[in-house]
Amino acid sequence: MIALLLYRTVAVHLVPWATAFATRMLARSLNMPEPLVHSTGDYVLAQVTAFEHGVGRSLCPFRIARLLRAWWRAWH
């Protein structure tokens, strides 16, 4: 019970503070305003998501293995 209380306290109070602190420090080290750091992060997330749904899907190891097996069967 005490461990649950400690974990909840950390999750509710410490994690948001640490995230805001890390964002602030990153913005200061890059000499950028904080909102620009947030919007840049959103842009990067959108680009990664688009890659994963586009090219990344064709690079899936299971799909590549299936294509190689089909190619191998057709060759023999």
Q: Give Rg in angstroms.
A: 22 Å
Amino- and carboxy-terminal Cα gap? 63 Å
- Strand fraction equals under 5%
Helix segment count? 4
Instruction: Give the averaged pLDDT, no decimals.
Output: 83
Note the run of SSEs as H and E: HHHH
Low-confidence stretches: none
Give the overall shape: elongated
In short:
The protein has four helices and no strands. It has 76 residues and is an all-alpha fold. Helix 1 crosses helix 2.
Write a concise keyword list for the protein shown above:
89% helix; mainly alpha; elongated; 76 residues
Q: How would you characterize this protein structure?
A:
The chain has 76 residues and is mainly alpha-helical. The protein contains 4 helices and no strands. It has helices at residues 2-30, 34-53, 55-58, 61-75. α1 (2-30) crosses α2. The longest helix is centred in the first third of the chain and has 29 residues, at 2-30. It is elongated and about 60 Å long. It starts with a helix and ends with a helix.
